[in-house]
Amino acid sequence: MRVTDIKALLPERLFDILSQQYDELRPCQKKAIDKGLLTGANLLVCTPTASGKTLVAEMAALKAILDAEGKALYIVPLKALASEKFKDFGKRYGSLCKVALSIGDMDSADTYLEDYQLIICTSEKLDSLLRHRSPWLSRVAVVIVDEVHLLNDAGRGPTLEILLTIMRHLLPKMQLIALSATIGNPHELAKWLNANLVLDSWRPVELHQGVYHMGKTEFY
Fold first, then answer.
1. Cα(88)–Cα(85) distance, integer angstroms
2. Is the pLDDT of residue 81 over 90?
3. CA–CA dist 12, 52 (Å, integer)
4. How many CB atoms lie within 10 A of CB 217?
5. Domains and CATH numbers, the chain
6. Which pLDDT band, with edges at 50, 70 and 90, does 106 fall under?
């Protein structure tokens, strides 16, 4: 599928940026579009690292923002990853919307985020924002959860599970995009998330498995 094939589904300004950067969509991106990415469907995207999952999330987020449906919230597990996404999204989409990073003070409602459309935060920060009843949260249209397999993590899992449950209750019409490269029970998780499942094994660099011993590597 070429980017020009989905021109009618994208806001014009978003299409202009994507068409300058990409000619063809990767397999997981095509599958996501076929499963309702650009028509508001919840998705669980389980594909290898570097297969194009982030662009799936970006298309959902920017479409909602540019169509004036509401804000987009991008949840990541680590502050370092949040900072990386903030720089990347700001560089790529800063001309289309206001991008914010919210990972700091855990005792604040961050009311200034009312003026931002694409907000990157950690699970812990979102927990704080919910506890402080940040009024702008009611305007969130798309929630993206990166590394959603951490639901199974003993430390972060319970917090993430509660956050998703609360957000789905508070925002029943929101679009949820969950991303991961490693999920052992994708069908079960997709059912819990009420999401369409996108599975694909394509990766930009093929992996080979083998054993290195005494200066030699044997692949199998």
1. 5
2. yes
3. 21
4. 9
5. 26-203 (3.40.50.300)
6. low
Q: What single letter denotes the amino acid at residue 55?
A: L
Per-residue model confidence as pLDDT tens digits over 143-178: 999 999 999 888 888 999 999 999 999 999 999 999
Assess contact for 81 and 146: CB atoms under 8 A: yes
C-alpha span between 75 and 127 (Å, rounded): 11
Specify the residue for token string 């989409």: 93
CA of 86: how far to CAs of 55, 114, 167, 169, in Å?
14, 17, 22, 27
Half-sphere exposure for 106 (CA within 13 Å, toward CB)? 6
Contact of 93 with 63, CB cutoff 8 Å? no
